[in-house]
């Protein structure tokens, strides 16, 4: 823990109350938005942590460069714009991407959070996430957990401020929604953002039986479907992608430009030829498979914690470089970026 005097009173003791409300009444979230804005616009210049181990490094000292330390005004302004539906063709250039499958427990939410983090923090794209995996809302819950840790810790406040100043933007927006309202909530979020997202990720429920899932998926520009080397998972996944392609994409009822599969939870002890056999069958069915295979690793569950300084799965901080190595997330995210090609 670092004493408050080290930061010259720069870091607020608590996350401030929001200066304005937006389309949600979540005051904690928008108070955090103001905190991020203050970090980026503060007259205090901080030497950023090492890019090789940003979370491991201790918070550096502050250097005063201006006498006036007035609190920066919030950039989160409410805009009176009506939302539109993507199906009407009035949607702007934001790319809608979903990680979707009808098989739960395959790490879909984790992959969504990691890909969003890499594209936002490393690739430099502006990203947003619509968490419509009701009722779990795992990604939204992770953000609330991280905001609580930052709010109660001077150490994490310092790291957060260093991070926001370095990337010159706030953490990506997370909208809590459900499959029925996901598209409307996404459009409403886009209309109120001063900085429009290049990519909007949708974390979908793990079953097609949930209301609104098919409708929402039909409006995605790209869908990435995880599968593991399990017969039941492969059969279930292939039924899903075949149904979606034949009944929605080929008939023009879906706006989807690409439907890709990828391997996840890969056990290094499994036979490599097993994946080759599966991929031959998948190729005959006409579905592309990403070349990157994500391993089954405990590091994927390494969240921000008071007990450790390194972090992997986070909605705010970038992935620790040491943990990123060998995870496949860098290659996976680069491959996705090459496919969707954000502007």
From TrEMBL:
Record Gene3D superfamilies: P-loop containing nucleotide triphosphate hydrolases (3.40.50.300)
Name the CDD domains for this protein: ParAB_family
Q: Which SUPFAM superfamilies match?
A: P-loop containing nucleoside triphosphate hydrolases
Q: Name one Pfam family in it.
A: MipZ
The name on file for this protein is: Uncharacterized protein
Q: Which organism is it from?
A: Paraprevotella xylaniphila YIT 11841
Mind giving the lineage of the organism this protein is from? Answer: Bacteria, Pseudomonadati, Bacteroidota, Bacteroidia, Bacteroidales
């Amino acid at each position: 823990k670092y004493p408050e005097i080290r930061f010259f009173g720069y870091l607020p003791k608590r996350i401030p109350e929001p200066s304005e409300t937006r389309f949600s009444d979540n005051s904690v979230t928008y108070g955090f938005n103001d905190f991020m804005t203050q970090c980026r616009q503060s007259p205090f210049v901080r030497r950023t942590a090492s890019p090789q181990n940003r979370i491991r490094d201790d918070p550096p000292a502050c250097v005063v460069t201006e006498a006036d330390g007035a609190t920066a005004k919030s950039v989160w302004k409410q805009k009176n714009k009506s939302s539109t539906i993507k199906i009407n063709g009035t949607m702007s250039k934001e790319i809608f991407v979903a990680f979707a499958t009808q098989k739960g427990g395959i790490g879909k939410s984790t992959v969504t959070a990691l890909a969003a983090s890499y594209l936002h923090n490393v690739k430099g794209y502006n990203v947003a996430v619509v968490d419509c995996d009701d009722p779990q809302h795992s990604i939204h819950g992770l953000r609330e957990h991280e905001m609580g840790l930052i709010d109660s810790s001077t150490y994490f406040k310092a790291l957060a401020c260093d991070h926001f100043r370095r990337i010159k933007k706030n953490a990506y927006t997370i909208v809590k929604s459900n499959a029925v309202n996901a598209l409307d909530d996404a459009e409403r979020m886009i209309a109120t953002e001063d900085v429009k997202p290049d990519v909007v990720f949708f974390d979908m429920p793990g079953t097609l039986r949930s209301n609104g899932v098919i409708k929402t998926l039909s409006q995605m520009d790209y869908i990435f479907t995880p599968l593991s080397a399990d017969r039941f998972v492969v059969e279930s996944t292939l039924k899903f992608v075949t149904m979606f392609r034949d009944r929605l994409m080929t008939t023009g009822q879906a706006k989807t430009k690409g439907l890709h599969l990828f391997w996840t939870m890969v056990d290094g002890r499994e036979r490599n030829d097993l994946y080759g056999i599966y991929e031959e069958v998948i190729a005959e069915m006409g579905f592309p498979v990403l070349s990157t295979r994500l391993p089954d690793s405990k590091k994927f569950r390494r969240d921000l914690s008071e007990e450790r300084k390194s972090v992997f799965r986070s909605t705010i901080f970038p992935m620790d470089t040491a943990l990123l190595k060998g995870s496949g997330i860098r290659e996976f995210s680069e491959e996705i970026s090459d496919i969707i090609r954000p502007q």
